[in-house]
Design a protein that fits this description.
Layout lengths: L1 H24 L14 E5 L3 E5 L5 E6 L10 E3 L4 E3 L4 H7 L6 E4 L9 H9 L3 E2 L10 H7 L3 E4 L6 H8 L4 E3 L8 H5 L1 H6 L5 H20 L8 E9 L2 E5 L4 H8 L2 E3 L12 E4 L1 H8 L4 E7 H4 L2 H7 L7 H4 L3 E4 L10 H12 L12 E3 L1
Parallel strand pairs: 3-4, 5-6, 5-8, 6-7, 8-9, 10-12, 10-14, 14-15
Antiparallel strand pairs: 1-2, 2-3, 10-11, 11-13, 15-16
Helix pairs in contact: 8-14
Length: about 375
């Protein structure tokens, strides 16, 4: 009986280890994106994953203690990571891989993710920029000797070449070009490949997708659509998201009717300058106005009217249904369902009377 029990325990242990191994690798294999268009997972098995980033560059990630040690390969799990791409940071946090993050572009005061702010203040994460898109401390990046650097440039520029010449590999993560909130969040599946956390990423994506769909289904089919204007106003200049942007699609998912949905441009993910006359013609009938800036930059409704007197005739202004971003909005790519909930509450307050906004605030 003792021998049988011993053998039984060994078999059970082997089965448990095998099950754990299957769990870790269950999400590997060729995988199409559900919502994102900026990356591809071409092939994957227990030894390596082949990917394409936003610059259409093919890269191979070698998993675990592989014999393949060629320098051109990435190795998973990544131990030291720098993120010039700020949207990558909350996705790394969501994967519980914050320990790997050694450098970021924004100073501690600009972060609203508690884990990042704390690590920057303690010196565990170094500042490798000054918050602007143009300046990077290349000496600091080289000194940190990262396994990889997540970037956000749409072309392979001179500083990426500079890093490449010093053996530092870069990966382009252009979440802002995606056409939906879920498309932006799906980048967590791409980033997870550099950590061997594909299963965790897949589980998180499924949870968020289900929550997002549930919120949207409650309002999207409603015959009553809230006419919505989303814009950025700087002095006498106005720009708006295109009709195929993630913002336009989020408005539709929240049961809204984006008044500029037919206004498109080649500027993927960017804001499009709008003639003031057209802005007035299309924007004045909107029930809701959402401004892509924080209250510290805007002030209040009165200050908006002083700069642009003509908007005082907008329905949204008259009814005081004007909102703007809270600063944390730009660091919340990992919370698409909650962002949608906020937008739904602004567009349909009768359905969410007790909801407190997280990412937006009223002017």
């Amino acid at each position: 009986m003792g021998l049988k029990l011993h053998i039984s325990l060994i078999i059970s242990t082997i089965m448990i280890l095998a099950a754990l191994h299957c769990t870790d690798t269950a999400e590997r294999g060729r995988s199409e994106s559900f919502h994102a268009s900026g990356f591809k997972i071409l092939d994957s098995d227990d030894t390596r994953t082949v990917l394409k980033d936003s610059l259409n560059r093919t890269m191979t990630v070698v998993h675990g203690k592989s014999k393949k040690s060629e320098k051109e390969f990435f190795h998973s799990p990544a131990g030291k990571v720098i993120s010039i791409s700020s949207p990558s940071v909350p996705l790394i946090v969501a994967l519980d891989e914050t320990d790997s993050l050694k450098g970021v572009r924004l100073p501690a005061a600009s972060w609203y993710l508690k884990e990042i702010k704390k690590r920057m203040n303690s010196g565990k994460i170094k500042l490798i920029g000054n918050g602007s898109h143009g300046y990077m401390n290349f000496e600091a990046i080289v000194a940190l000797n990262p396994d990889l650097v997540f970037t956000n440039t749409e072309i392979e520029n001179r500083w990426e070449v500079f890093l490449s010449e010093r053996g530092i590999k870069t990966v382009a993560v252009l979440t802002h070009l995606e056409r939906s909130l879920m498309g932006q969040f799906e980048w967590i599946r791409f980033i997870s490949c550099f950590y061997g956390r594909e299963k965790k990423a897949s589980d998180l994506f499924t949870i968020k997708k289900d929550l997002y769909s549930k919120i949207s289904s409650e309002v999207r089919s409603s015959p009553s659509k809230t006419k919505t204007l989303w814009c950025n106003i700087v002095q006498h200049r106005v720009s708006v998201p295109g009709g195929d942007s993630f913002i336009a699609n989020a408005i539709a998912d929240a049961g809204g009717d984006y008044v500029l949905k037919n206004f498109t441009s080649d500027l993927r993910g960017g804001y499009i300058p709008l003639d003031m006359e057209l802005f007035y013609e299309t924007g004045r009938s909107a029930d809701v106005m959402i401004i892509s800036a924080t209250k510290s930059a805007i002030g209040n409704i009165d200050s908006l009217i002083r700069i642009n007197p003509f908007i005082q005739n907008f329905i949204s202004i008259k009814n005081k249904r004007v909102w703007c971003y809270r600063p944390c909005f730009w660091q919340s790519i990992h919370r698409p369902d909650e962002i949608l909930k906020d937008i739904t509450a602004m567009l349909h307050p009768e359905l969410h009377q007790d909801h407190r906004l997280t990412f937006f605030e009223k002017l």
